[in-house]
Amino acid sequence: SKTLEYTKRLSSIISSRNNVDISFRTPFNSELEISNSDSEELFKKGIDRQSNADDGGVIKKELLESDIIIISSPVYLQNVSVDTKNFIERIGGWSHLFRLAGKFVVTLDVAESNGSDNVSEYLRDIFSYMGGQILHQVSITNSLKDIA
Question: Quick check: 57 and 80 in contact, CB under 8 A?
Answer without folding.
Answer: no
